[in-house]
Amino acid sequence: MAEQTGWSDEVFSILRAAGVAQVAYVPDAGHKQLINRCIADNKIKHVPLTTEEEGVALLGGAWLGGERGALLMQSSGVGNIINMLSVSNECRFPLLMIVTMRGEWGEFNPWQLPMGQATQTTLEAMGVIVLRADAPEDVPETVAAAAKLSFEAGRMVAVLIGQKVIGFKNWDK
Amino acid sequence: MADSSDIVLDRRDVVSRILAARGDALLVTGLGAPTWDAAAVGDHPNNFYLWGGMGGAVPTALGLALAQPDRRILVLTGDGEMLMGIGSLATVAIQKPENLAIGIIDNQHYGETGMQETATAHGVDLAAMAKGAGFGLTATVRTEDDLVAAIPLIFDAPGPVFFDIKVTAVDQPMTLPEKDGLAIKHRFRAELLGDTAQK
Lengths: 173, 199
Known about the structure:
The complex is a heterodimer of chains A (173) and B (199). In chain A, strand 5 (129-133), helix 7 (139-151) and strand 6 form a beta-alpha-beta unit. By secondary structure, chain A is of the alpha/beta class. In chain A, helix 1 (6-17) packs parallel to helix 7 (139-151). Chain A has helices at 6-17, 32-40, 52-64, 75-78, 85-91, 113-125, 139-151, 163-166; strands at residues 20-25, 45-48, 68-74, 95-100, 129-133, 156-161. Chain A has one domain: 3-Layer(aba) Sandwich (Rossmann fold), CATH 3.40.50.970. By secondary structure, chain B is an alpha/beta fold. Chain B has one domain: Thiamin diphosphate (ThDP)-binding fold, Pyr/PP domains (Rossmann fold), CATH 3.40.50.970. In chain B, the strands form 2 sheets. In chain B, strands 2-1-3-4-8-7 form a 6-stranded parallel sheet, sandwiched between helices. In chain B, strands 5-6 form a two-stranded antiparallel ribbon. In chain B, strand 5 and strand 6 form a beta hairpin.
């Protein structure tokens, strides 16, 4: 696994600055450092999920209660949230999702390809605004832009962090 | 196989009596009949009605419960809706929200789609599943006495609490609340958050 460096810490700071109070997640290796920062922070409620669609509903409820949130997941999780996006869409709940990609750049596991290749199309079909970051230095400003779109313009927004940023999965470790 | 012949409680009566005791509790209803029930017994700006997102009632209420720790949060949803989001019981249990109560209006059928049986008609025990997830207080409510005992606990016992309330599978007249999600959201937030609602 490629070492994660500055972008996870910067994204954490951006989420804090945006007033994010609930971070829901199904873990992905690419989110490991960011998840650990959230767990260590006593001002952020971290909510591990059994499936990503719970996170979509959870963040709608958070917004009803006056709190902002973010959902962290792998691209395979996008397949699990499709119908629940109906709720965010119909109620115009802000929904900030940070998605680490599998099934694209340098993927060795063919089982990851169908969902990875369909991730952006699927999100867009459900009305989600998709922003991509394919270089580590682009991740923080992309998340900041997505947070603004989500919380201030009231939309569903996904940041796809390219597999090139995360690095090849190393099975020799 | 669960025996349905001992089921006596009427869903509208159950929902009416629970909500009569609500105080300032916030309510999330799952799609289908629980939403119609809540509307039928009295619309309220503290009600958030789901008309879709099957499986999402409990996690919606969890997000609300975490955001509003000083308010009681009640979910009323159906057995089919709960089964679709059953993993959310684990998600709730590890957050341990003391202010969250879940009530299942369990008629053992998918009422909106032709009254096909759900798994609870075949012995699947939702209260046992909640207990297994780690809920401290769980119960199956079958009788008038059970209901009388459950209502205060729904609002006052330390959460998360879970009540599977067995009701008869009888069609009720549909009473439809507002269905524009944006309007439901705005009303709910304006009532709860006042002037800060649009921020």
